[in-house]
Amino acid sequence: MAKLGLFIKDGDPNVTSLTKKLIGQITSQGHKVVLTREQAELMRLKKYAASGMKEFNDVEFIVSVGGDGTMLRSARMFSQFGLPILGINLGRRGFLTEIQISHLPKALPKILKGDYHVDERMMLEVIIKRFGKTIFTTGALNDIVIGKNGLARIIRLKAYINEKPITTYAGDGLIISTPTGSTGHNLSAGGPIIDASLSAFVLTSICPLTMANRPVILAGNEALIVTVLEVPKGMDGVLTADGQQVISIKPDDEIFIKKSPYTTRFIRMKDYNFFNVLKEKLGWGEE
Question: Which residues are tagged catalytic?
Answer without folding.
Answer: 68
